[in-house]
Design brief:
100 residues, mainly alpha, two-stranded antiparallel ribbon, 3 helices, 34% helix
């Protein structure tokens, strides 16, 4: 399956990323190769193969659920440049990122 440069541009726009024409072409090519490799897996005969979720030995390490005092908020906020109502204030990252 070929991933077009237009599809790469579209996803880049949705992600608020910008790429040069060369980068867009390279991404389209790389992504197409990745999709082709994944599609190869459809050709593997898996009839009679048991479903496997993991090959690792599963062990749950449990601990006591004991309440503990948290870190002092004033200590945590000591290096915070801007704060408001016990929250860290950061620049808006969305368009029209006013106080909505």
């Amino acid at each position: 399956m070929k991933i077009s440069e237009e599809e790469v541009r579209h996803v880049a726009t949705l992600s608020k990323l910008s790429f040069s024409d060369q980068e867009t072409s390279e991404f389209a090519s790389s992504l197409s190769k990745i999709v082709d490799m994944v599609e190869l897996l459809n050709e593997v005969d898996t009839d009679g193969v048991a479903v496997t979720t993991t090959m690792a030995d599963q062990k749950n390490v449990m601990r006591q659920d004991i309440a503990q005092a948290g870190t002092d908020r004033d200590l945590l906020f000591r290096n915070v440049p801007e704060k408001e109502n016990h929250f860290i204030k950061v620049p808006a990252i969305l368009e029209d990122g006013g106080d909505a």
